[in-house]
Amino acid sequence: MSLVNRSSLRGIRATSLVRISPFSTSRLVRQFHDTTNKQSTTTVNNVKLTPTPPSIQSNSLSVKAQTEYLKTFDYKELISFFIIGLATLNKPILNLCIKAFPYVPISVIKALVYRIYCGGETINEVQETGEKLSKRGINNMMISLTIEACNGNDNIDPEYIARETSKSVENILIPHTVKMIEESGKSINDIPAGYVALKPTGFAKDAVSALKYFKSDPVQAEKFNDLVAKSASVIQTIYDANKSLAEKYPERVAPFVVGVIDAEKFELQEGVYELQRRLYQQFNKLNEPVTVVGTLQMYLSGSADLLALEEQLAQKNNYRLGLKLVRGAYIHSEKDRATVIHKTKEDTDNNYNKGISYCIDNILNKKDSTIGHLVVASHNGDSLKLASERLYNELTISNPEKNNVCLGQLLGMADSITYDLIKSLNINNVIKYVPWGPPLETKEYLLRRLEENGDAVKNDNGWPLVKASASVLFKRLFGLA
Ligand SMILES: Cc1cc2nc3c(=O)[nH]c(=O)nc-3n(C[C@H](O)[C@H](O)[C@H](O)COP(=O)(O)OP(=O)(O)OC[C@H]3O[C@@H](n4cnc5c(N)ncnc54)[C@H](O)[C@@H]3O)c2cc1C
């Protein structure tokens, strides 16, 4: 049965909280923070925490900083960066590459750029990627078996995806997390959790119809239940692993492994929210670390109200929330953009920053916080700096709940910022989203990365990347570095 049946929604809407977004004005921020938290009365724009960590390199990296982060990559990766630099030299060249991309043979893609954005084709290759990342100071991953199915491509076998995803938890995430705990030399609460991302459209044939019509069509409701059951079978593996690892390492505060439900296009999101709620209810028990994290897209104008609703539902139904906050990836394809997405980038940025501040403050300072875990999934230097400042300051030094917040970037994206977070700001909880799977299946994902790189042409791609990767390659070849 739907967790959000009409009567429960009516009951909740009767309260003022749902109608009022938790952070739409500074007055309302206070309303949600009238707990023990001293920082709670500050608004995002007035963050006054000391000491302030050194500034993160956000959108204007110096060539020197570029060169520094590139030194952590091997020859083949540097050559791939050089090629990406060439492909993003300017908009016309990039547009040409994007148009030509579908016709480029998969063997060429694999040889040239696949390794930068994808963790490998097999479980063994993803394990090696985890090793490589740990050498760069990135001690865990969010792995995602990437078989795209959201645009009507139903070339998927949900049984296979559920089975392989569970296998990836057992054979990649758990051993990698344990290895990091045992061998990194860091304290147990300084190793981030390992995450596995679940794309809801991968867990049923024609999942789009199930997610859209599960409330009105009994056939789709049946299919939706099956989608929930398949997702739950993966999360059960994670829940069991957390239970047994907690016995071995009782001093750990955060979960060891976490299942993350990815957000999709707006028209599918009602179904995705329902999926998240059912999984929260089943696995995110009170007084236990969170096992399931759902995603909120903060570019949605209704996202602050939605967060308030999720908190209400969690409190009413006695479960905890795990959240991944993203800005949102579907802005270009959103049909009802004018009505569902914030009017300006600035509005999205404000909403995102208020959202992460609110969640972090709750996790760090509120006893028995409903929000138990947060992934700040972003490449935006300002948002990451804000999150870092709230997490690492003299008030939070000995607060182990910090481990319940992690900062995530996509593999191959914003590597300079990831580097800065780890090397300049000494942030422990940084992970990379690592898609993996057959190159043919990841082609759509790769195309999206190319397009996103286009958005960043002016920043650290294009000519600066060509120069920096060539310089590192040259010095390494001639033994000058
Ligand atoms: C680890 C990880 C997991 C992710 N998982 C998901 C997921 O499950 N679902 C999903 O949808 N996305 C996901 N994303 C992608 C994410 O939603 C963003 O598209 C991407 O990270 C770029 O946003 P940013 O925060 O890095 O910041 P920026 O690059 O500063 O912001 C770009 C974003 O701002 C918003 N924006 C841009 N212009 C406007 C405008 N005119 N008006 C309003 N808003 C605007 C858009 O959301 C755009 O993507 C994930 C990203 C990461 C790093």
UniProtKB/TrEMBL annotation:
Which residues does the UniProt record annotate as the domain Proline dehydrogenase? 129-457
Q: Where are the transmembrane segments?
A: none
Query: Care to name a GO molecular-function term for this sequence?
Result: proline dehydrogenase activity
Q: Which cofactors?
A: FAD
Known catalysed reaction(s)? L-proline + a quinone = (S)-1-pyrroline-5-carboxylate + a quinol + H(+)
CC terms in the record's Gene Ontology section: mitochondrion
Q: For this UniProt record, give its keywords in alphabetical order, as a comma-separated list.
A: FAD, Flavoprotein, Oxidoreductase, Proline metabolism
GO terms under biological process: L-proline catabolic process to L-glutamate
- Protein EC: 1.5.5.2
The Swiss-Prot or TrEMBL record describes its family as follows:
Belongs to the proline oxidase family.
Q: Per its database record, what is this protein's job?
A: Converts proline to delta-1-pyrroline-5-carboxylate.
Q: What is this protein called?
A: Proline dehydrogenase
